[in-house]
Design a protein that fits this description.
Oligomer: single chain
Number of helices: 6
Order of helices and strands: HHHEEHEEEEEHH
Mean pLDDT: 93
Distance between the termini: 23 Å
Shape: elongated
Strand order of the largest sheet: 6-5-4-3-7
């Protein structure tokens, strides 16, 4: 997945080399990066919210795994985290994870932890998105030092 991200221009190969083989970052500063950018959706130990996958038991000690997911979050999306796009008869679009459903309603959880209950008779269409709720450009918004710090925190 990381090689594909490099080939598709989602992350620079020199940056990958620097992050994998350069000096370690500062885990304390990395925690601040996590809280600001990741904890709104992800949980790691006691930190964060469990909207997206809980990172506590993921293979986060593997920097290649981490960089692959940071650089191309839509490459591999677990089934339970597939994004549903619901269009209603009134023209409203609700995007997020389908967390509940029954014969009369479906409930969508969005990236802000907001639950929206939609009556089935008000739904025009439901589509699965090929995109993750995780921002595609996170690598671009963080500098190399912040990425290095974040990786150190995630691996600690």
């Amino acid at each position: 997945v990381l090689r594909n991200a490099i080939n598709n221009g989602k992350i620079d190969e020199q940056l990958v080399h620097s992050l994998l083989f350069g000096p370690n970052g500062n885990a304390a500063r990395g925690k601040q990066v996590f809280v600001k950018n990741c904890s709104v959706c992800h949980k790691l130990g006691p930190e964060g919210t469990e909207i997206a996958p809980d990172l506590t038991n993921r293979p986060r000690h593997n920097p290649v795994y981490l960089l692959a997911n940071l650089s191309d979050p839509s490459a591999i999306i677990p089934h339970e985290y597939q994004v549903h796009v619901v269009m209603t008869d009134a023209g409203t679009v609700v995007t997020g994870f389908k967390v509940e459903e029954n014969a009369k309603t479906i409930t969508i959880l969005d990236a802000t932890n907001q639950r929206t209950v939609i009556a089935r008779d008000e739904i025009e269409e439901v589509k699965l998105s090929e995109k993750s709720l995780m921002p595609e450009n996170l690598i671009e918004t963080l500098g190399e030092e912040q990425l290095r710090d974040l990786l150190s925190f995630l691996r600690s």
